[in-house]
Amino acid sequence: MNLASIRLITDQVSRVTDFYEQVTGETARRHTPDFSELVLPGATLAIGSTATVKLFGEGSAEPAANRTAIIEFRVDDVDAEFDRLRDRIGELVQAPTTMPWGNRSLLFRDPDGTLVNLFTPVTADAAARQQR
């Protein structure tokens, strides 16, 4: 089994898509005003409007209500990414910090409040875990 994508539901498809284009440096495929995708190595980040929720079942997803998931991106240099994004990210949760498990992490929220983690493995053990 492969993780194919993560989909965010939002009332602001264009704004959230713009945000993730800035974070990733990639250009989204904007299929319709209600659906876009950022195709990245490993998985796709899909962004759908609340209008698409009825296709899955009315009320099955609620925009801007997530406080349990973290969208994580491995980057080559988290400190350089912080410098690049410092003025573009809204709510900073944690400046780059080395975590006990060996990743250096930057945490912030997207326009809908979803937690985003940019991280760089900085220990041999952390780097080895990423090779699996």
Describe the overall structure.
This protein is α/β, with parallel strands linked by helices and 132 residues long. It folds into 2 domains: 1-60, Signal recognition particle alu RNA binding heterodimer, srp9/1 (2-Layer Sandwich), CATH 3.30.720.120; 66-132, 2,3-Dihydroxybiphenyl 1,2-Dioxygenase, domain 1 (Roll). The protein is 23% helix and 38% strand. It has 4 helices and 8 strands. Strands 1-4-3-2 form a 4-stranded mixed β-sheet, covered by helices on one side. The radius of gyration is 15 Å and the shape is globular. The protein starts with a strand and ends with a helix. The mean pLDDT is 93.
- How many helix segments? 4
Radius of gyration: 15 Å
The unreliable regions are none
CATH superfamily of the largest domain: 2,3-Dihydroxybiphenyl 1,2-Dioxygenase, domain 1
